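S1.2 Input.
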Amino acid sequence: MPKGSPELTASRKEEIINACEKLYQTMSFKDITIKEIGAVTSFTRTSIYNYFQTKEEIFLALMQREYELWAAEINSLSENNPTMSAADFADAVAGSLEKHQQLLKLLAMNHYDMEENSRPERLTDFKTAYGASLDAVRKCLSKFFPDTDTEGFIFVFFPFLFGVYPYSVATDKQLQAMRDAGMDFRVHGIYEMIRSCIMQLLGGKE
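S1.3 Output.
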């Protein structure tokens, strides 16, 4: 790590993560390289290695940031609402994740390779953010739905999120392939899918 203030280090990391995020909007994970990311930062490509050793570490940091932002929104639900109905909670969580489509897209990636190609300390930072999102949901469930099987909800809901993006976003190539295969397929909206899942997990209570 180069010498410099913590503020400069944080700023450089944020710029790298932002560059990765920008590229990921129009490019696939496999096509994005450290060189591509360096080309849209204000410093040299080789400087990136002072902060991240692999592109997987950069993507992991991007996903970490997305989890942190989403966890903050979920924590605000338990902090700012004395009670919530199942419908209101489902609406709030589905609406929140609909705004965080980037997180859902990242969840659809191969986590095994991403984590395997990141240093232990970077992986620990990511797992801390992921754990905080689990705790944020647990806090809401404990407060608003004390009779719900909290861990059962967690074990279904979080793995479910890994498949939301592929079922809600399809490329023209994928749509054509499904038509050619004679599949009766309808692309579902992110909000619709997540709200339905939460309502079912909460027993359809209103």
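S1.4 Remarks. The domain at 59-201 is CATH 1.10.357.10 (Tetracycline Repressor; domain 2).
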